[in-house]
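Hi C.,

You asked whether I'd gotten around to modeling the 374-residue construct. I have! Everything is below, sequence then structure, no commentary in between.
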Amino acid sequence: MRLTFLGPLYARQGPYACAYIDTSRDLDDPDRSIDLRRRHLEDQLAAQGADTATTGAIARVVGTDRDLPGRHGQAIFAAHGRLALAEELPDPPPGDTARLAMVPDAMPLALQHAPDIPYVAAVVHRIAQPPGSRTAEAEVEVTVQAGRWPTARVAPGHRTRRQVPAWGSPRPKAGGEWRQAATEVAGQIADLADRDEAEAIVLSGDHRARNTIARELPRRLRPRVIAIDSTGRGTEPERALLEEELRYLFRGRLSARDQACVERFLTRRARGSGTTKGLADTVTALRRAQAEAVLINDPFDLNQRLWVGMAPKQIAANQAELRGLGVEAGWEEAADAALIRAVVGTGAELVVVPRDDLPLPDGLGALLRYPDAG
């Protein structure tokens, strides 16, 4: 998983005010609950020494996702009185947190982006006509949406919807119009799949209609088609199309890019070269900009601290090690915050792997760009 979305957090030096807050709307009085949470976060940040302008930048964003229904949360970061980054979270945090630190607390946000699977979803319905019409089902409605799972749950792509005469409609030339429409819809899906490098094309709804659309797709895309039996009805417009179906479909799955990283990691580990395992060796690889990808177990519960300097690569297990690198002005940070900064700053990728599938010492490992430091 690429982490370019975290770039704004490292564009300037800290301290950063970092807030994770539950802004779910599935409550009797969500606005009151969110307002109480917001005030609590402000108090916590102020107690840690955050200035009024910075806490105000955080507070102004809390709850601005009020049009988003259901359970979700927000991750908000500000520094020097200015907002640095704000994103909706597919799942609310286990508990609201507010933290003032030189290095942003970005690991929980990164983990909620995984597995970052690009996809296109389409739902096809036959629409019944009013009683008395010559046919009970004379039109087809097609809804299409592209996204990346799981962030599409709270940041869905634009939905397009169109209605066309169905086969069997009494209107002259209706069959030809449907075939033409199916070709156009397939072209739209193909364009979205190519643009986003979609790994899955999920088609749902009427069997005959979705099969027609699938046949109209370019041959190279057909192996990516996944047909599911679902009406797609009941999904809120502000949420991802086929959200519950996609949740089941992508559960426990890695993106193709991440899966390739895992396979290379396993192959090289078996050869005894080109990988690291555990916190100490992974820190060393990041310090040398040697890590192509860092593998991290989910759940990740590393409760340790590391020493860091001003640059992302200035990361060490202890103060003496950092001074050995010529860095005198160092300080301690939470290990997860220091690690994710180093991953972003060295251009590495992050691969989140279920612990049951690939247990790693300290929950960490790395796939190396080159086998040793020279």
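If it helps when you're writing up: The CA atoms of residues 13 and 276 lie 30 Å apart.

Thanks,
B.
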